[in-house]
Structure formats: structure tokens, C-alpha cells
Design brief:
Structural class: alpha/beta
Largest sheet: 7 strands, mixed
CATH architecture of the largest domain: 3-Layer(aba) Sandwich
CATH class of the largest domain: Alpha Beta
CATH topology of the largest domain: Aldehyde Dehydrogenase, Chain A, domain 1
Number of helices: 15
Shape: globular
Strand content: 15-25%
Number of domains: 2
Mean pLDDT: 97
Length: 475
């Protein structure tokens, strides 16, 4: 069967052949080609940054009213929605997401984020400051949007949407593992924007992103990915004091008290396995369980793991798909081996499924009798691996939750509403959900500590992608 070939990058309103030709994108479920992606040169990445600078300085986008930008972003959302059903199969093929996740979180969420950006563009750009002045929100300039492999299109839309709403020009650089959907998203959005406002580059090495970070034409870097890469970006950006928004790693605690609704708490814990095979930064991979129910919770998790259907995301009933690449599977397997070496009990999983000879699969895995100083409790694994740790009381739960280099997300389950709020306030993390509260796309999102810099989400994204200027006068 023929696979899609994307051999062009977008520079200054024109799709041009990538200097390096193409490279194969691998389907993680079959290890066969899912398509071919463009491999541009460093020179083309630099040209894209210059084109974005030209569009920002001399094009109409920055000087348009918010209402005018809103109309165009709304049109982009409509056009994406008209094409999104046709992008589901491509998304499954390159990301390995099971169909439900591909449809709802990988594709449909993109249209919602673009519509939200259209609304953000209508926000007032000036605010009076007494006694005689005004605070003006202005675009930063050229934003390099460097996106991850786990939710490539959704994350990209979450970056370019508010950046464009503020009047910036952008250069998109996706993960080389699964860039095909992002190329399609950029094609759709670019078609309604002035030339050069949106640019797309891609390559199979780190040099393309590095070129954007160091480019003198780039004013800001918006990056989602590992803390290790985020640290290098922050160091490079500091040379020119570039603005950064860094959405980095997590090792989120899922705190389960004995008085909670155990069924719902178990379902929450199991989502580490079923929600994109644990390849999600907000996954509650540290399951902290109060002593009286620890054995019950871990036994039921250990019994449930092997019952989850794992396999090709196209197959009905599959809820656990593959990891995105061979390298990612090897990373997860190294952590599983380390957990056993450190003395944790492997309660279930830990292997490649024997009935799946091809594809980058790892069984749903649970470690029990773990300590918070073990690598499996401290480092982000980014796979279907749960580390269960027991605690005695509320104070110890909070101490364990906070004893982490990360602080992105957290969960707490309890029948005591006041305790839920106390714990949520005490845990040093950017978001806390109590008893399964739904994620809120209009809430601020970001992390403490090594989980990142800055906040996005809702109106808070306007602050991330803009500068504030004060203008005062005398009468």
C-alpha cells in the first residue's frame, strides 16, 4: 500500500522541496513505513526564521485588529474541522495512538484549540492604568514552536493558536518521529494567513531545532518535551535573553486515601496504561496509596493489567497501543530493569507481549513495594509503567508528593472535601485534580521546578506570547 510522501517545507508562504529529500516515518505498530517526511537543511531553517521576521515586520498580520485575526483563525478552525476525519488514519499510523485517543485527543482537539485561539484574538489589547496611562499588550515577534511526539498536532495547535492570536509570526518544527500530521495542520492554517506568518520546517536530527533556537530572527521559543532538552534550550536562549515557554517533564503523584471512591481511583491509576500507553506528561505514574488499602489497590491493579487488550491500534477493543519508537521502548525497558535491580516488586507486566512479534509494545507494568528514592519513582519513564508507594497519613502523602524534581500535575482521591483541598494546596505542582475533576482548557497550565517555565492555557496564554508596554502621559 502506498504511503504519504511529504517532501516540502513551508518558507515565506511557499512550499519548497526539502534540501535533504525525505526520510521514512515508521508505524510503531507494524514497524513498516507510515510515510516519508521532509528533511530540510539548516539553511532552510534559518531562511524560515528570516521569512517569519519579514512577515512580522512588514506584513499585515501584526497590525491587523484582533477581530480581523479572529476571523482568519476561525476560518482555519473550520477548514481543519472539514478535513479532520481524513487525518485520523494518518495519526494512528505515525503515533500509534489507539483510535479513541487519535480521534478525540490527537485530531478533534486541534479544531477546538484553533477556535479557542480565534476567541483569544478578541481579547482587549489595552488596559487603563491610573492616573494617566495605558498598559498595551504587543506581540513578542517571531516564535519558534518546537513540538513533541506524543500529541503532535494538538500540541502544535496549542502553540501556534495563541501565538498567532497575539499577532506573532511563527516557525513550526515538529518531532522528527511523527511530523506528518503537523505538516497537514500547517498546510491548512497557512492557506488562510498572509504569507510568511506561519512557516514549517522539519528534519531527522537535532540541528534544525538548534538552528531556530540560536537564530537572531527568533524572539521566543515555545518548546514541549524533555527536561534535558528544555534545559539546553533555556541555556542557549539566555545568550540573547529570548523569551521561553517550556512545557517539560513530569512525575505526577496520584494520591489515593483510604476513604475515597476506590473504583474511580483505580480507573484513574489505570489510565497510565490506557491513555496513549503512558506517553503523556501529566500521567499519574507515582501512585501513592494510604496504608489500609495499599494491598487491595495494588492487587487489583496487578490483576487488571494483564486483562487489558494490547495490540495494533486499528483492531477493535485494543486499549493499549505501542510506544512511538524503538528508542522509546528501549528507554522504558531500561527503567523496568532498573526497578527490579533496585528491589521493587514487579507485580505485573514488564515484558514485550509474546503474541506481538512486531511493533514497539510493552505490557502494562506495575511496581509495588517501591520507595520514593528509586529511579522508577523519581525519573520520567514515559511509558505504561506505574510505581506504587504506600503512605501512613496526610502529612507523609504530601511529603512524598513534594519529594520530586518535578511539579507538573497531580491527583488526589478522598471522601473528605476539606482534606482534598488541603492536599491540593500543599502539593507543589502546576495543576491538582481532586476526585477526577475534568481538565479545564481555559485554566493556566505549566509546571513548577524541572517541569517547566511559564504558563499557557486560556487567557494566560496571551501573557505567554506577548510583551507588555506601559504608555503614560501628562495632561
Amino acid at each position: 500500500m502506498a504511503v504519504p510522501v511529504f517532501d516540502q517545507v513551508l518558507i515565506g508562504g511557499r512550499w519548497v522541496p526539502a534540501d535533504g529529500g525525505t526520510y521514512p516515518v515508521v508505524n510503531p505498530a507494524t514497524e513498516e513505513p507510515a510515510g516519508h517526511a521532509p528533511a530540510c537543511s539548516v539553511a532552510q531553517a534559518e531562511a524560515a526564521a528570516r521569512a517569519a521576521r519579514e512577515a512580522f515586520e512588514r506584513g499585515p498580520w501584526r497590525t491587523m485588529s484582533g477581530a480581523e485575526r479572529s476571523v482568519l483563525l476561525g476560518t482555519a478552525a473550520e477548514r481543519f474541522q472539514a478535513e479532520m476525519d481524513g487525518l485520523v488514519e494518518l495519526t494512528i499510523a505515525e503515533t500509534g495512538a489507539v483510535r479513541a485517543v487519535a480521534q478525540a485527543q490527537q485530531v478533534r482537539a486541534v479544531a477546538a484549540r484553533l477556535r479557542r485561539a480565534a476567541d483569544l484574538a478578541l481579547a482587549a489589547a489595552e488596559e487603563p492604568v491610573a492616573p494617566a496611562g495605558v498598559a498595551v499588550r504587543e506581540p513578542v515577534g517571531v516564535v519558534a514552536c518546537i513540538t513533541p511526539f506524543n500529541f503532535p498536532m494538538t500540541n502544535c495547535a496549542g502553540k501556534i493558536g495563541p501565538a498567532l492570536a497575539c499577532g506573532n509570526a511563527v516557525v513550526v518544527k515538529p518531532s522528527p518521529i511523527d511530523p506528518l500530521g503537523v505538516a497537514e495542520l500547517c498546510r491548512i492554517v497557512d492557506a488562510v494567513l498572509p504569507p510568511g506568518v506561519l512557516n514549517f520546517v522539519n528534519g531527522d536530527g537535532a540541528e534544525i531545532g538548534q538552528a531556530l533556537v540560536r537564530s537572531p530572527d527568533v524572539d521566543m521559543v515555545s518548546f514541549t518535551g524533555s527536561t534535558a532538552v528544555g534545559r539546553r534550550i533555556e541555556e542557549a536562549a539566555a545568550a540573547r535573553m529570548k523569551r521561553t515557554v517550556l512545557e517539560l517533564g513530569g512525575k505526577s503523584p496520584n494520591i489515593i486515601f483510604a476513604d475515597c471512591d476506590v473504583e474511580r481511583a483505580l480507573a484513574s491509576a489505570m489510565s497510565v496504561w490506557t491513555f496513549h500507553s503512558g506517553q503523556i506528561c501529566i500521567a499519574g505514574t507515582r501512585v501513592l496509596v494510604e496504608e489500609p488499602i495499599y494491598e487491595t489497590v495494588t492487587r487489583r491493579l496487578a490483576e487488571a493489567g494483564p486483562t487489558l487488550r494490547i495490540g495494533d491500534p486499528h483492531e477493535p477493543g485494543v486499549v493499549v497501543g505501542p510506544l512511538v519508537s524503538a528508542a522509546q521502548r528501549e528507554r522504558v525497558e531500561r527503567y523496568i530493569a532498573r526497578g527490579r535491580e533496585e528491589g521493587a516488586t514487579l507485580a505485573c507486566g514488564g515484558r514485550r507481549p509474546p503474541h506481538l512479534p512486531r511493533g514497539y509494545y510493552v505490557e502494562p507494568t506495575l511496581f509495588t513495594d517501591a520507595r520514593n528514592d528509586m529511579a522508577i519513582a523519581r525519573e520520567e519513564i514515559f511509558g505504561p509503567v506505574i510505581t506504587a508507594i504506600r503512605f501512613r497519613d496526610e502529612a507523609e502523602a504530601i511529603a512524598l508528593a513534594n519529594d520530586s524534581d518535578y511539579g507538573l500535575y497531580g491527583y488526589v482521591w478522598t471522601g473528605d472535601a476539606e482534606r482534598g483541598l488541603r492536599v491540593a494546596r500543599a502539593v507543589r505542582t502546576g495543576t491538582m485534580q481532586i476526585n477526577g475533576s475534568a481538565p479545564n482548557p481555559d485554566a493556566p497550565f505549566g509546571g513548577y521546578k524541572l517541569s517547566g517555565v511559564g504558563r499557557v492555557g486560556g487567557r494566560w496564554a496571551l501573557g505567554a506570547y506577548s510583551e507588555l508596554k506601559y504608555i503614560g502621559w501628562t495632561t
